[in-house]
Write a structure and sequence with these properties.
single chain, mainly alpha, 0% strand, rod-shaped, transmembrane helix, transmembrane
């Protein structure tokens, strides 16, 4: 049970940078689209 909990914590810690990079990617795509409109 302890191993399962630590695995879940490690999974969440690993998911954080992936989520951040995904958000940054969406922001860059949005800024590129705005730049093309101007």
């Amino acid at each position: 049970i302890a191993d399962q909990t630590s695995l879940l914590v490690a999974y969440r810690l690993a998911a954080i940078p992936v989520f951040i990079s995904f958000v940054l990617f969406l922001i860059l795509r949005f800024l590129d689209n705005k730049k093309d409109e101007l």
